[in-house]
Every structure is written in C-alpha cells, then in structure tokens.
C-alpha cells in the first residue's frame, strides 16, 4: 500500500493537469450509503425502480418518499477525510477539477471550488409542467413540494433516463481530453456516460489512479495504479506524501 501511495503521489506531483472522478463511494464514510454495498437506503428503495425519470413522471409521490429519506441523510452529512484531502490538493494547485457523480454537495463543503456536478444538484427544484424553478430551501418541509401550477416539483438531479446537463458533459469531455492524471475514487464506473471519462483520459495519455474498496472493470483494463481500501485513509496518506515531496523540493 505504501509503495502504491508513493507511486500515485509521484504521478500527481509531476502532472500539470490532474482531475478526479468521484462517485457514491467517496461519501460512504460520511454516512451516505452507495448503491452497491449491502444494506441501508437502497435495500429499501431499488434505484432501478425509484431513480428513473419514468418512475418520477408516473408516481412522483412515491419517488418523493425516497427523496425525503435521502435528503434527511444528506443534510446531516459532513465532508470526510477524502473530500477534505481533495480540497487540499486543489488549493495546492495539484488538482484542477473534480467531476462528481454525487449530488450531496460534500466536495464543496470539504473546501473544493472547481467541481463539475455531472448528475446535477439537489439544491434547486424544477417543474416539469411549466418550467418554474425553486430553491429547495424555500420548499423545505413541504412534502411533496409543489409548483404554483400545482404539479409536483422534481429536484435538479439527473435521474436514470435523463440527459446529462450539456455544460457538465462538454466541460468534462474537454478536461478529460487534456488531463495528464485522473484519480477515480469510489465509483463502480458502471453508470454511463460518466464511466466513459476514464477511457477518454487514458486515450489521451493520462495516468489512471483508482481508489476503490472493490475492484471494478477498470482495475485490470485501464487503471495504472489501483489502491484498494477506504477513500478517507488513502487520500489522507496520498496528500501527506504529496506534501512531503513538495517540502523536499522547496528545501532542495
Ligand atoms: P456505486 O454505488 O455504483 O459504487 C460505489 C463504489 O465505491 C464501489 O466501487 C465501492 O467499492 C466503492 N466504495 C464503497 N465505499 C468506499 C469507500 N469508503 N472508499 C472507497 N471506495 C468505496 O456508485 P457510483 O459509481 O457513484 O454510481 C451510482 C450512482 O448513484 C451515481 O450517479 C451516484 O453518484 C449516485 N448516488 C449518489 C450518492 C451521493 O450523492 N452521495 C449516493 C448514492 C448514489
Ligand atoms: Zn409548474
């Protein structure tokens, strides 16, 4: 593990353009369950059944039961060592952008500023009937929240079957095409099109560092350095190792 961390730190230290692609796994240590691991929210609500745009259009009240439970977990969650470590790398000028599939706002809470929210954000709600937009704060306590036109509002997160926001899609593609290093953290990389980002980066010559609890289909195909384990501990160790290198550069 120590050697892999040193190897990854060297790649990040040398790279002039580093990206991170994160998924639900990075927020597990903040108490937000991911899709794959057993138990929790997703054994109560099957994402295939609750997280599709078709389900929302047909039965928005039912989908709001899941959204309300998810909201409660997310609103009490605090950034963990992995979010904070990535924020530190960014402020050291060693991480140019985080592309996250998460909608929990924990990267920003952990100090990161350049975050692309590939699957949207739950802080605003939209009406699928008339297009009006609301701040989720203004609708807090309303269940399910309704538009002035009486339709049930939808949070601006990307449901299965919905398009990725154009700006997030284009910027991610452009960044992945120029990255020299990509950290893939806490994602099973099965949700498309987010899972095309590592391949785009690799084809353009980026080194792929994967940090995951379990192996993924990337591990033995395009990953260069696989560090297996919890994101909090690994990213803290990685940041410490990068700092050590910066320190020794400064002194020598
Ligand atoms: P996923 O559940 O498919 O995969 C999670 C990955 O993280 C797995 O590879 C798992 O081994 C790994 N993992 C679990 N705990 C970890 C830890 N402590 N440290 C490092 N790795 C860990 O998640 P996904 O690939 O992001 O795809 C699911 C979709 O649902 C995405 O769109 C995701 O963002 C969304 N979702 C978001 C949240 C959130 O906003 N926090 C929560 C659940 C699902
Ligand atoms: Zn409306």
Which helices and strands occur, and which strands form pairs?
Elements: H1 2-14, E1 18-22, H2 41-44, H3 47-50, H4 53-58, H5 60-75, H6 81-91, E2 97-100, H7 106-109, E3 115-117, E4 120-126, E5 133-135, E6 154-157, H8 166-178, E7 181-185, H9 197-203, E8 207-212, E9 225-228, H10 231-251
Parallel strand pairs: 1-2, 1-7, 2-3, 7-8, 8-9
Antiparallel strand pairs: 4-5, 4-6
Helix pairs in contact: 1-10, 6-10, 8-9
What does this structure look like?
The chain is of the alpha/beta class and 252 residues long. The protein folds into 2 domains: 162 residues, Rossmann fold, CATH 3.40.50.1220; 76 residues, SIR2/SIRT2 'Small Domain' (2-Layer Sandwich), CATH 3.30.1600. Helix content is 39%, strand content 16%. The chain is built from 10 helices and 9 strands. The strands form 2 sheets. It has a 6-stranded parallel beta sheet with strand order 3-2-1-7-8-9, with helices on both faces. Helix 1 packs across helix 10, helix 6 packs parallel to helix 10 and helix 8 runs parallel beside helix 9. It is elongated, with a radius of gyration of 19 Å. The mean pLDDT is 94. Bound molecules: nicotinamide-adenine-dinucleotide (NAD) and zinc ion. The site of zinc ion has 7 residues, from loops.
């Amino acid at each position: 593990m120590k050697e892999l961390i040193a190897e990854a730190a060297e790649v990040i230290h040398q790279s002039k353009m580093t990206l991170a692609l994160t998924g639900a796994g990075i927020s597990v240590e903040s108490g937000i369950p991911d899709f794959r691991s057993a138990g929790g929210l997703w054994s109560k609500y099957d994402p295939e059944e609750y997280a599709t745009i078709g389900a929302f259009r047909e039965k928005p009240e039912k989908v709001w039961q899941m959204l309300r439970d998810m909201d409660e977990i997310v609103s009490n969650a605090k950034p963990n060592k992995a979010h904070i470590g990535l924020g530190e790398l960014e402020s050291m000028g060693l991480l140019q952008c985080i592309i996250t599939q998460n909608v929990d706002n924990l990267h920003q809470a952990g100090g990161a500023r350049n975050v692309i929210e590939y699957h949207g954000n739950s802080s605003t709600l939209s009406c699928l009937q008339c297009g009006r937009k609301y701040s989720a704060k203004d609708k807090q306590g309303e269940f399910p929240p309704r538009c002035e036109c009486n339709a049930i509002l939808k949070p601006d997160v990307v449901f299965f079957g919905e398009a990725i926001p154009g700006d997030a899609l284009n910027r991610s593609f452009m960044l992945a095409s120029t990255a020299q290093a990509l950290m893939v953290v806490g994602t099973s990389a099965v949700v498309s099109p987010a899972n095309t980002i590592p391949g785009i980066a690799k084809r353009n010559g980026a080194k792929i560092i994967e940090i995951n609890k379990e192996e993924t289909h990337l591990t033995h195909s395009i990953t260069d350095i696989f560090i297996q384990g919890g994101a909090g501990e690994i990213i803290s160790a990685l940041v410490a190792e990068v700092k050590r290198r910066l320190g020794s550069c400064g002194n020598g």
